[in-house]
Amino acid sequence: MATVYIPTPLRRLTGGQSKVQVAGSTVREVLQNLDAQYPGIGERLFDDQGNIKRFINVFVEDDEIRTLQGLDTPVAENAKISIVPAMAGGASTQGNGRARPVRLTREQLLQQVMAQIKEIDIHKLHTMLQGADTPLVIDIREPHEVERGHIPGAKIIPRGFLELWIDDLAYDPDQPIVIYCAGGVRSALAAKALQDMGYRQVYSLAGGFHAWESAGLPVETPRVFTPEQRERYSRHFILPDVGEEGQAKLLDAKVLLVGGGGLGSPAALYLAAAGVGTLGIIDHDRVDLSNLQRQVLYTTADVGRPKVEVAAERLKALNPDINVVTYREPLYSENALDIIREYDIVINGTDNFPTRYLVNDACVLLRKPLVDASIFMFEGQVTVYQPAIPELGIEGGPCYRCLYPDPPPPGEVPSCAEAGVLGVLPGIIGSIQAVEAIKLILGIGEPLIGRLLMYDALAQEFRVLKVQRNPECPVCGDHPTIRKLIDYEQFCGVPMPRPNGQHTSTPAQV
Ligand SMILES: [Zn+2]
Fold first, then answer.
1. How far is the CA of 475 from the centre of ligand 1 (A)?
2. What is the pLDDT of residues 240-260, one digit of tens each?
3. What pTM value is reported for the model?
4. I want to staple 327 with a disulfide (CB 3.0 to 4.6 A). Which of 278, 282, 333, 470 is the partner?
C-alpha cells in the first residue's frame, strides 16, 4: 500500500485525513483507487483527457512524476505519494462557462434562494446550543457589525471569506451548520453557497442577529481592537484558526521565559511580535560580547547591561501593545512557585541541570505546560511537558523526570560553553518553542506533548520520537514522592548559577 498525502483543499473528501493508504502498482492505479475510496477526488485531479491537471503536481517520494514516467510511474510498496496543488496565497473560482439565460432582480433571486434553503428559528437554535451536539454557528457579518456582540460560540467569518475558509471548519458534508447575518438575507445567500459546495445540513437563522438580540437571548461582546491593532495583527486576523478570537486569546496570555539567552531571544521576539500580552523574562545575567553570536535580543552597544533591562526595551519597541515583566534574579526553589504561578505557559531556555529539574517540578506542581528545549553543538530538541488536568479534560503527557529520572553525574555532559553551539541553532529551536506556546494558547494543532522533536542541523533533518509518561515518576507519576520543591544543587551535585560573577563556568542560559 502506498501512503498518499492529501493537501488541505482536498481533505474534505477524505474526511479530514491528511494521509491515506491506497493500493496500486502505478501512479495512475493509485489515484484511480484513491478516487474509488474517496469519490470526487478524481475530478479534482484529472482533466477531461485523463491527464493530471496542470496546476497540480504529484510526487512519488521526492520526485515529481512528470520527471519520471508520468502516470505510468511505477509505485513501490510503502511508497509516499504527495499531491501538491498550486497555492498562490489567493483563491481562484472556476466558472462553468454557462451564462445565466435570464437576468434576475434582487427580489427574484431572494425568492429563488429562499425556496432552496432551510431556515432555523432563533429559539430552536438556542435550544440546540444547550445540547450535546451543537451545530457549527457562523456569523458572516462585517467586522464593524460584530463589534457590538455576537451569538456565544459563533465563528466569525466575514461573508467574503466563507467559501474559502469553510473547509477548515467543516470537513464533514453532514455537519450541521447555522449561518446568520443581521436580518437573515445575506445568510440565506451564504447558505445557498454552502449548499452548492455539497454541505447538506445548512440553515440560515431566520431574522438574524437582530431577532436573537431582541428576544433577549445571550450575546457575547468581543474584544474591540484599535485600528492600530487591526493593522498590526491583520495577518493573524485573516488566518481561520487565529482570527480576532485567537488574537484576543494571545493578548490575554501570559508566558514566562526562563532565560533571556539563545533560546529565549527568538522565542521572546516572536511572542512579542505575535501580541502575546504579558511576557515574563527571568535572567540575572548581563550582556556579554560572547552572547551576541546567537542571542539576537542584544546588540554590541548593550554589552555590560542587564539582559532583562535590554530585553524589555527591545520587546516594547517591537510591540508597545505588550507588557514585559522582568526578574533580574536566578530561579531558586524559594521563588520559583511564586513567579511561575502568575503565568499560563513556561518556556525553558536554561542549560544547567539544577534549573531544568527545578522548572520541571514547579510546572508539574502548578500544573503549567512547559515548552522545553535544549541545544548542543549542531543539534536541538524540543518537547512540551503538559501535566494532566483531569477536570479540564487535559490528559497530559510525560515530564522531564519521566524521561530523565536522574541528572547526569557532574561533568559528564559538557555545556554549550564548553562544547560550543552553532549560533543559528537556538534561533530555529527557540522559534519552534514560540510556535508551540502559541498553539497552546490558541488551542490549535497538535502540540508536541508526548513527542520529542529532534533537529540535526548538519543532516538538515527533523525526527519525532514518542515519549511516554512514567507511572513511577517521582513527581508526575501515580504515587508521587516529590510534593514540594527540593534542593536541586544537592540533587544534581552541581551549584546553580549565581549573579554578580559568582556563577560557575556554566552560564545560566545558552
Ligand atoms: Zn514525570
1. 6
2. 899 988 999 999 999 999 999
3. 0.67
4. 282
